[in-house]
Amino acid sequence: LKAPDSAARPHGVAALVRGSSLGCRRSASAGSPFTPMHIKQVIIRGFKTYKDQVSLAEDFHRGVNVVVGFNGSGKSNFFNAILFVISDYFGTLRAETRKALLHEGAGPAVLTAFVEIAFDNQDRRMPIDKDDVRIRRTIAAKKDDYSLDGKHATKAEIFSLLESCGFTKSNPYYIVQQGKISELTLMNDARRLELIKEVSGASVYDDRKAESLKILEEIRGRRSKADEVIASVRNRIGHLEEEQRELVEYNRLERERRCLEFELTDRDWRTAQDRIDGIELERRGVAVRLSEAQRSAGDLRARLGRADVEIQELSAQREAATARREEGERARSSRREDLARARLELEEESRRRKAAEDAHAQAQADLEKLRVMIDAAERDIEAMRAAPDLKRRQELVLEKQRVVAQRDQLLAKQGRGSQYRSIQERNEALAAEIRRQEDRRDRSHRVREDLQRRLREEERAVKAAQESVLRQQRARRQLEQEVREQCGERFERATQQLEACAEERRLLMQKREQLARRKAEVDRQIAQDQARLDSSMPRAQRTALAEVRAWAAKEGLQNQLFGTLLDIIEVPEDYRIAADVAAGSHLFNLLVKDDSIAAKILSLVRTNAYGTIVCTPLNRISARPRTYPQIRGCQPLVDVIKAPEWARAVVQQVFGRVLVCSSLELCDEVTRKHNNLDAITLDGDKVNGNGAMTGGYQDPSRFVRLGHAAKVRQARASLERDIVPELNRVDAEAQEKSKQLEELHSQRRQLQDERGEQQARLVRAAEEQQESEANLTRHEVAFQRCRERLEETTRCEAACDEAIRSMQAEMSSDALGRLSAAERGELERLTRRGKELETEADAVEERCRNLERELRGKEQHLGEFLRKRLRELEAEALKDASRDHVERERERKKAVERLEAELKMVGSELDAAKAQAEKASATLEVRRKDHERLTAKEQELQAAISQDSACLDELSMKVTALAKRKHEADEKMRNLTVVPADIAKYKDQESGRLLKDLAGITKELQKFDHVNKKAIDQFATFKVQLEELERSQKQHDESMSSIENFIKSFDEQKDETLLRTLEQVDEHFRTVFGDLVRGGVAHLRMVAAIDGDGDGERGSAGASPGRSRA
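The chain above was modelled as a monomer; its predicted structure follows.
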């Protein structure tokens, strides 16, 4: 397959390639519709220089294909890749060799390499029914794998497939490497003949002939050894014939000895059997007595167990009563403390209420007294305001003003004579003064009119303020009445409802505590029974069940687990032992919904190593109808077991084939007639359908699982039926009462808030009343001031009128500055009168100032003290703190009454608990004495049982010893092979005579101590061995003959193959030579080499391949 160096090489290559096809078992003829097998495609990746995957764009031609390329382009590696797959050239590769075959170069390292060759298999030369067959070889640093059409295959399978189509190790020239053609043309005749032998496959026959010759030599050696052994065996047989005659006499004496020993041993056996029968009779009596004692002991243990349970229950009752008594004492102590505290609070609240009532009464008295004082002060003020001196002072002021004005006019008139020179000037000055006085009078008149208007307004304001004060007083009194009537009554009703609801809730909570104690007691009983039930379960199964239930609760799969069989069945008490024995460990089978949940559970238990568990999927269990025989005293066990309808199939599966019989004899009779059923007694003795019996004494204390399960079920039923619903109802009622209590508290707080708001409204009303009264006072003061100013303005206006009249009169007079006698007399009178009025006015003014000072003091005392104090007392009266104290006192009193009732009830419960504890203690003492008596009796029975057991063990040991002696006699008689006819003559002889004969024969046998006791057997053995050796010798002869014939046939086949190959090579050689040399003729011949290098020619068919050269 290398690129040719000359024009002749391609033809040589093509010839060799076609020649390799001719030597195969099958080849496509010229007219065959199928192309001969050839390489279609080669795919390389990672092999030597081929880093990336390389494949041809087109398939190889079925004829000659030439690969051309520069040096180093990979032609040799391409050829090695083909050898890598289909030849043994790269058969066994070391790690470094595999590494050298991987591509080495720049870039990432190549870790794996493969070469895949696709063969055209249309002619089915490979025994595979495919047109294309692909063989791939993959190597790595630690891997060397083959694959066939994409499937893994071994190297042996691949090379076996290649050998089936001509790629054999015996013909290494199915691949012609570079230089082989030149080597063929240059080699000598002998080497060329060897090459033709190799090409034809004749060397295979030489190899097989060599192997056959080797085997032939081995067989000849074994036959020689067999001849020596046969001679030795024949010599040994001659010696054994003499030893055999001595052995015959020895066997006669030995036979007589065996007969004597057999007879003596038989008599010993019968003696032992008689003694065993006697002991068995005695042992049966002891066993019956022991069984009765064990049964009595079992009954006692059952009674002791019941007594223990009763003692535990009584102890629990006493402990519970003691706990209730201690709790009652603590509760009574607590109630007493609470009662004492409540009484102290009641006394304190009563004292506060009394103090508040006294304070309220004193405030009312002070209020009435203050009102009297205010009335008196108001009367005094009114009286002082209406005092004569005040009125006289006003009169004196008016008269004084009038007198002063008249005197001043007269004096002015008298002085005008010096002021004015003429009457006209005087009159003009008087006219101007009159105008001034008229202006003043007009101003005073306008002021007086304004003051009159304001006086009327102030009068209306005073009336309005008085009406407002009266209206607010009426509203305040009405509001006070509403506060007293409505809020007080509603608050009282709310308080009563609150106290009643609190009492009902207290009674409900007390009842709940009682129910909770009952529930705790039942839970404790359930826990005890469940613990006893769990203790009867294997630890691994108990752990697994607990973990599975916890897992189901966590995953929310409780509805797919229905509990164990023990949890769902109910068995009457009389049948519990029978059911327990019949079910066995099936009682703890976990019933599940279907296969999927069962698989999950088993996987969980197995993965986490929780223990062992047995799951029963209900979807796989179906109830099979079973017909039971109608026998008196028999009853199917499934008929007495109660279970839910969905679990009947499981019950039928576990208990379906069990009948409960009244006696063990009836059980045996039932199973003999009906071998498909098992029978069991109420005591637990069971007879299987195959006749096997199990039973005996059954300790009742061992079969408590169904009893404890029934107790747990009853306790849970009682809990779910009576206690839990009642407890839930009481809880619901207590919650409802709590809600009502909260609502009543809220209503009461709302009423308190409303009452506070009403009181605040009262306070605001009082404040508004006080503000109105203050406003009234202000308006009254303003009215008084306005009236005083009005009087003063009126006096001023009168004085102006009087001055105007005087000046007008003076203007009508003709006298200038002169007074008439009357006027002078009037002036003197007015002067005197002025002085009198001055003196009287001073005295009256002094008295009025004192009176006004006293009046201001009384008004200030009235406004700033008496009325302020009145408002304070009225505010305190509005608050009326005594009502709050009365309400609190009532609450404290109710609390004291409630605590007294609770104390009385706790005392009653404490007395009942003490009585119950004393009763339980007394009963417990009686039960303990009974338990001690039963224990003593049980110990006596145990002593008797121990004694009978010891006696039974002693008898059993005797029976065992006799049975051993009997067994030894049996073994001895079995080993003493005798004929009955030989023993008959010794039957009637005495044992002494037999012993004497036995001693004589034994002495005779001592003479034959040297005899070969195996002479007969050895003679027979050597005879058989001799026959086998002779047969083996015959087989060796036959094998040698067969191998010689086989070697001869190999020579013939080799000659035939060599001649056929030579003819084919000669034909091909002539054709090639004719192509190379125009008109030339040439042929190959095989010449026999006889006596050196003689050239005796032979034809191809007549040449001797043994010593020939080509």
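The first strand starts at residue 38 and ends at 45.
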